[in-house]
Amino acid sequence: MMYPQMQLQALTNPVPLPEQLTGSVTNCNTSQVLMAAPMNSNSSSSRKLANVKSTEVQRTPSQATSIKAEPGSN
Description:
Order of helices and strands: HH
Mean pLDDT: 58
Largest sheet: none
Distance between the termini: 43 Å
Number of helices: 2
Structural class: little secondary structure
């Protein structure tokens, strides 16, 4: 079975992001774990991403996302 060749094209009309998304990444105060891909360029954006820190890395047991069903509840 042959699949058609995938063609990737550059975006000509990028969507402008709101200011709260384009602001300094290092000034955010969040409990979410932030992951940044390693970059080799010397641009200011790569230095910002290298300095991203999370205020809380692990969740407490009370914040677990798993839901346990009680016996006989189905």
